[in-house]
């Protein structure tokens, strides 16, 4: 039972990332009808927003400390971060330590700007083009963004730690009546799951309970009729593209302590996220979230040694096997809508 609960927690952790990325993908496809293969790159850019802020906060100047000497007796040069000079040593160290949570605020305007620039500068020219053209151009854009990040940040993963207070693990099993140290789970992974729930809930609340969201949902259902009512639906859909980019970017920011950012991390998640979208149903936001958590949990259980001893390599293909089974029995996915990508 303890192994099952631990794998369930791991599955919710993976599913959170899948669900957030798939949610943004579905927002773009549901509103604009664009198959965006550059969405994984937005996840990667969000992660490197956290890296960039950490480096900015760590910028320092050099001073000579006469009280500290090297082995030759010369005064040592020490580096002091500028934030310590501006806010004091204790406050400065706290700000640097909390660079990842602070990067959420740092990334929001950046991701919104990148989303708007992508949609206005490139994506809008492919609205009426075949999906194959959209895939080719957005995949090419993803490669370009990936190489730009590789040029500036290098090819190696960059460790980006969580705040000191959340680097340990929580004895989850004690709460459920198990012996101590049976189910130990990292604090930050639980925070990531909670963060994902907040973002997903906020997106659904925005679409469900605001006038802007109601108009967007109406435009997703019947774009032409909404336009005939005098509403600039294209402008609203551009804002939704920015929102989808922000969701992907924030998912990347908070994922950095779990998986050190590297230039190809967007591609690693992209294929899996599209499988999640297809399984959930093209254009279905609830389906994307449901499929994200379902496939994350299944992948986690498939990685158990007991399962792999019976079916070697099953953890590498379980998501694709489930996708095949679901699409054979439900061609539109779990919650797909009639007419989406069926023309």
Automatic annotation (TrEMBL):
Recorded topology in the membrane: Multi-pass membrane protein
Q: Say yes or no: keyword Transmembrane helix present.
A: yes
Which domain of life does the protein's organism represent? Bacteria
Tell me which InterPro entries the record gives.
ABC_transp_permease, BCAA_transport_permease
Gene Ontology MF term list = transmembrane transporter activity
Q: Which CDD domains match?
A: TM_PBP1_LivH_like
Is Cytoplasm given among the entry's keywords?
Answer: no
* Transmembrane regions: 15-35, 42-64, 102-123, 190-216, 237-258, 270-298, 310-328
Record key words, sorted: Amino-acid transport, Cell membrane, Membrane, Transmembrane, Transmembrane helix, Transport
Cellular compartments annotated: Cell membrane
Single GO cellular component term? plasma membrane
A Gene Ontology BP annotation from the UniProt entry: amino acid transport
Family note: Belongs to the binding-protein-dependent transport system permease family. LivHM subfamily.
Q: What is this protein called?
A: Branched-chain amino acid ABC transporter permease
Origin species: Qingshengfaniella alkalisoli
């Amino acid at each position: 039972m303890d192994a099952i609960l631990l794998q369930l927690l791991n599955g919710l952790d993976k599913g959170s990332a899948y669900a957030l990325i798939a949610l943004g993908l579905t927002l773009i496809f549901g509103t604009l009808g664009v198959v965006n293969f550059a969405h994984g790159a937005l996840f990667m850019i969000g992660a490197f927003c956290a890296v960039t802020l950490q480096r900015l906060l760590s910028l320092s100047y050099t001073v000579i400390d006469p009280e500290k000497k090297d082995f030759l007796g010369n005064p040592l040069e020490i580096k002091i971060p500028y934030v310590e000079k501006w806010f004091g040593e204790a406050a400065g160290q706290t700000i640097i330590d909390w660079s990842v949570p602070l990067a959420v605020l740092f990334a929001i305007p950046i991701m919104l700007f990148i989303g708007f620039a992508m949609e206005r500068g490139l994506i809008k020219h492919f609205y009426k083009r075949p999906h194959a053209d959209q895939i080719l151009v957005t995949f090419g854009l993803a490669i370009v963004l990936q190489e730009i990040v590789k040029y500036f940040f290098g090819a190696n993963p960059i460790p980006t730690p969580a705040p000191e207070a959340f680097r340990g693990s929580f004895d989850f099993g004690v709460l459920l009546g198990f012996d101590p140290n049976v189910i130990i789970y990292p604090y930050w992974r639980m925070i990531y799951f909670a963060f994902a729930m907040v973002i997903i809930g906020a997106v659904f609340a925005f679409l469900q309970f605001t006038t802007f969201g109601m108009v967007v949902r109406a435009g997703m259902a019947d774009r032409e009729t909404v336009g005939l009512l005098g509403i600039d639906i294209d402008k609203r859909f551009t804002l939704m593209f920015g929102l989808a980019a922000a969701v992907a970017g924030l998912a990347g920011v908070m994922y950095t302590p779990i998986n050190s950012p590297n230039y190809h991390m967007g591609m690693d998640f992209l294929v899996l996220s599209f499988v999640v979208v297809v399984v959930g149903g093209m254009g279905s936001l609830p389906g994307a979230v449901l499929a994200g958590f379902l496939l994350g949990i299944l992948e986690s259980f498939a990685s158990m040694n007991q399962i792999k001893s019976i079916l070697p390599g099953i953890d590498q293909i379980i998501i694709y096997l489930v996708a095949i089974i679901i699409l054979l029995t439900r061609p539109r996915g779990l919650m797909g809508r009639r007419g989406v990508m069926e023309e």
